[in-house]
């Protein structure tokens, strides 16, 4: 937002910080428990950041919706309304993610098992920090806005000052004329209008609902069939680029030498005269 009071840059930064705290907590706990740290675990923070920022947006959207409903309510009522709207969505997202990664700990690959343990635990911490730390930040940010304080310095802004006397830069940084005032109510977000007026009535049509049920049944049947066909293992051809010489090599190896059984490696631990036939 262009208002120096309604700007929520610090709120967004705290949402990212919440994900960072979740990563630090999970990594610290897993290392303390002796779980091996493998190189694939280094990718986990990006997953946690994606889910954590998504939860942050859900919380902020629910908070803004609660403000529009209960403009004059106290902070406790606003936060309760926010958790009523957002907590269910965040909880379901976290449960599905945690379940998916903890199921991955059953694999026979130790590196994948470590990755799933680190990431699944980080999702749990991400949920805890979103429900506690970020909720507290929402309240503090609301109190800053109610006190007409600048988003960067938290200094009180003079709302009644005449903007015509000052430069554009000064008005943008130091005057809170665009803050939340009863005479300037904030409009509803265009995306919310789209879902309420167009998408919602469309998906609640009885024929569309029937089509959704049929599509979901087909999807469920395909998923069950896919689970029966899946095989655990790695095809080394998938690790190389399409134009790599490795792919024809593995194709020829499978075509001409697959009947000879597994490849046997021999390790010689002594010094040998390789020139002597």
UniProtKB/TrEMBL annotation:
A GO cellular component entry from the record: membrane
Origin: domain of life: Eukaryota
Regions that span the bilayer: 9-38, 44-63, 83-109, 115-140
What are the subcellular locations of this protein?
Membrane
Keyword terms? Glycoprotein, Membrane, Transmembrane, Transmembrane helix
- Domain SSD, by residue range, is 1-140
- How is this protein named in the record? PTHD3 protein
Task: Write down the InterPro entries for this protein, in alphabetical order.
Answer: Patched_domain-protein (IPR051697), PTHD_SSD (IPR003392), SSD (IPR000731)
| Family indicated by similarity | Belongs to the patched family.
Q: How does it sit in the membrane?
A: Multi-pass membrane protein
Cite the SUPFAM superfamilies for this sequence. Multidrug efflux transporter AcrB transmembrane domain (SSF82866)
Primary place of residence? membrane
């Amino acid at each position: 937002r262009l208002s120096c009071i309604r700007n929520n840059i610090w709120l967004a930064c705290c949402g990212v910080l919440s994900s960072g705290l979740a990563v630090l907590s999970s990594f610290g706990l897993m290392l303390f428990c002796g779980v091996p740290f493998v190189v694939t675990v280094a990718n986990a923070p990006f997953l946690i950041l994606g889910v954590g920022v998504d939860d942050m947006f859900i919380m902020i959207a629910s908070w803004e919706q609660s403000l529009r409903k209960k403009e004059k309510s106290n902070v406790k009522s606003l936060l309760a309304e926010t958790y009523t709207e957002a907590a269910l969505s965040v909880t379901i997202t976290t449960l599905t993610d945690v379940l998916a990664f903890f199921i991955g700990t059953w694999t026979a690959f130790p590196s994948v098992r470590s990755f799933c343990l680190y990431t699944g635990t980080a999702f749990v911490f991400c949920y805890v920090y979103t429900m506690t730390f970020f909720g507290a930040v929402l309240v503090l940010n609301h109190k800053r806005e109610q006190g007409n304080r600048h988003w960067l310095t938290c200094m009180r802004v003079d709302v009644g000052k005449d903007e015509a006397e000052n430069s554009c830069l000064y008005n943008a940084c130091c005057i809170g004329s665009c803050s939340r005032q009863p005479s300037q109510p904030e409009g509803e977000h265009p995306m919310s209008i789209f879902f309420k007026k167009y998408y919602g009535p469309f998906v609640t049509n009885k024929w569309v609902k029937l089509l959704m049920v049929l599509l979901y049944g087909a999807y469920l049947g395909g998923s069950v069939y896919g689970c029966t066909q899946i095989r655990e293992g790695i095809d080394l051809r998938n690790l190389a680029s399409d134009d790599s010489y490795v792919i024809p090599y593995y194709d020829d190896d499978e075509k001409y030498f697959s009947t000879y059984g597994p490849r046997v490696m021999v390790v010689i631990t002594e010094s040998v005269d390789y020139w002597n036939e």
